[in-house]
Amino acid sequence: MSDIQIIETVTFRTIAGVSESDLTAVAKGLDAYLDRCEGFRARTLYKDASGLWHEHYVWANDAAAKAADAGFMAAPEAQAFMALVDRDTVSMGHAPITLARTTSAEAA
């Protein structure tokens, strides 16, 4: 199963007073960390109607996901991001992708 893509799902709430634009700006800063992570494939961040944030990462395989997680908290970009997150609300999980589909912008 080492060659199967992994999806990492993280949900969280921000600390009081953090706006959507504040979080989005700091979240963009995580790109520098992700660019250093071997096996990073994609990322999506969104907030639902209840104010819960959802983040999905796609990794090339389980080893890539675990390596990125192991180095996350030491990265300065992650520290800035986590300063805005209510850590008591964080939930994270990994699972192999069973089915995925994308379409090109031209087909949409």
Automatic annotation (TrEMBL):
Q: Which domain of life is it from?
A: Bacteria
Q: What is this protein called?
A: ABM domain-containing protein
Taxonomy of the source species: Bacteria, Pseudomonadati, Pseudomonadota, Alphaproteobacteria, Rhodobacterales
